[in-house]
User: Which sequence fits this backbone?
């Protein structure tokens, strides 16, 4: 009898174990096979961006030349043509903005990606690079020298020029935005002249072009500061959101070996915004592996786990639990700095043609972070669009950009939503954005400008009181408004 009872117990335990393993496995399998994969078809003569909501007819699309001499001649001719035919010019790299920042209706659309030359000065630690190059291309080039980018965005498939134009930021510890890595750049202005811009040469134009959304000219050659590539290990701790600032100061800011850090808020219904993780990469005394020697760390599995959280409370809980479990064993893994920076947006790619993933970002002074998170709860609990992620990244005071969003040390909270491509969902997102902006303004914060143009002109000016001065200077440098886009059309002076 006792033997039978033991057998029943083992059978029960086995069944429980199988259920524990099989339920998440079945969920992820269904996620994979149910993906309504498709490629967005963009008709000839049209342009879109990462939102997949800005399909726009343009006059023509121009792929730029790949060498400095050829591109300068090409662009001078093009700007003369645009002026003679009263056409506007918009500038694009990888087109990851989401509000038509790289598009003008019936205008000339530049594709800067072919302009991707690079050279490295080992004495000065300066990388000279064409603005159409992606960060991934820059990292692979620098990796040969044992070097890395000082400050860049979280994903590597953005272009250099595009990142400067939105003044992106990364998750490097105690760092301002990308502008802090820029030593200088050359700019072709509306008159077809080449202007060198730095903190000492044409400093006003330097500040305007950084975070200037392509409205002041075409960025050509950029000089970037670089740092050593190093080996790192990953660490993660659980914290309460109200304790995040103190934990960050103690564990990240006060540790000279930490190079990268980010937080994540729990978004599943159970413990909604009541739990957080603080994740960081710490330098170790080992030689980093070259990018060519590194193995893929289950990128597709990570993507499916992420996509499994779309419209699924179970999927959101599963993702949090899996990431928490993996975080406990990750300290045994060694990464290079360049490997970490080489992550591609494909890691979270949405392959469903009927929906799109949209980013928001809100920059909150550190002393207001806890209150901001509290204020989010009632708004996000009643949201009608699907929240997939909230990440927290530190951004130090930005002294470079005219339209600076970090006017003191802040935490940037990056929201990712999945929105169906329907008029109703677009309306729901507009309403939610207004609510989130109101909370941000209440907590003396700002919002990031490269995303959907859902914020009113008045509220945009509350967050950015320098807006009207910015647009006045736009007309000073480009009186015919040759360079334009949908962002400018939406927010400029009436």
Assistant:
């Amino acid at each position: 009898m006792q033997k039978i009872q033991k057998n029943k117990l083992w059978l029960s335990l086995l069944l429980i174990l199988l259920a524990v393993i099989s339920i998440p496995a079945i969920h992820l399998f269904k996620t994979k096979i149910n993906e309504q994969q498709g490629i967005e078809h963009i008709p000839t003569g049209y342009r879109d961006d990462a939102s997949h909501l800005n399909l726009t007819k343009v006059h023509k699309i121009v792929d730029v030349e790949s060498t400095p001499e050829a591109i300068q001649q090409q662009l001078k001719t093009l700007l003369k043509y645009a002026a003679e035919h009263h056409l506007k010019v918009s500038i694009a790299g990888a087109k990851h903005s989401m509000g038509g920042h790289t598009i003008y209706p019936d205008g000339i659309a530049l594709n800067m990606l072919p302009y991707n030359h690079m050279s490295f000065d080992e004495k000065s630690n300066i990388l000279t690079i064409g603005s159409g190059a992606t960060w991934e291309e820059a990292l692979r080039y620098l990796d040969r020298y044992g070097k890395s980018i000082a400050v860049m965005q979280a994903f590597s498939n953005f272009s250099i020029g595009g990142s400067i134009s939105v003044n992106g930021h990364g998750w490097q510890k105690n760092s301002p935005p990308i502008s802090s890595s820029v030593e200088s750049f050359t700019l072709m202005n509306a008159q077809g002249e080449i202007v060198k811009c730095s903190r000492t040469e044409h400093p006003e134009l330097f500040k305007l072009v950084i975070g200037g959304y392509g409205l002041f000219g075409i960025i050509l050659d950029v000089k970037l500061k670089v740092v050593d590539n190093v080996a790192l290990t990953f660490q993660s701790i659980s914290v309460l959101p109200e304790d995040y600032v103190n934990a960050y100061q103690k564990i990240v800011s006060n540790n000279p070996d930490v190079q990268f850090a980010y937080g994540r808020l729990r978004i599943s219904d159970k413990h909604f915004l009541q739990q957080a993780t603080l994740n960081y990469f710490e330098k170790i005394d080992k030689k980093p592996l070259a990018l060519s020697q590194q193995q893929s760390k289950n990128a597709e599995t990570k993507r499916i786990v992420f996509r499994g959280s779309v419209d699924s409370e179970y999927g959101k809980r599963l993702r949090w639990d899996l990431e928490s479990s993996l975080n406990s064993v990750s300290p045994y893994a060694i990464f290079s700095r360049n490997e970490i920076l080489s992550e591609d947006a494909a890691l979270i790619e949405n392959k469903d043609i009927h929906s799109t993933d949209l980013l928001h970002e809100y920059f909150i002074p550190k002393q207001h972070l806890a209150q901001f998170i509290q204020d989010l709860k009632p708004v996000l609990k009643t949201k009608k669009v699907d929240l997939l992620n909230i990440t927290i990244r530190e951004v130090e005071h930005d002294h470079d950009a005219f339209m600076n969003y970090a006017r003191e040390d802040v935490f940037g909270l990056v929201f990712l939503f999945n929105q169906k491509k329907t008029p109703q969902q677009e309306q729901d997102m507009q309403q939610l954005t207004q609510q989130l902006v109101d909370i941000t303004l209440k907590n003396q914060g700002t919002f990031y400008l490269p995303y959907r143009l859902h914020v009113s002109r008045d509220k945009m000016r509350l967050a950015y009181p320098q807006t009207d001065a910015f647009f006045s200077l736009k007309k000073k440098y480009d009186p015919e408004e040759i360079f334009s886009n949908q962002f400018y059309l939406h927010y400029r002076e009436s």
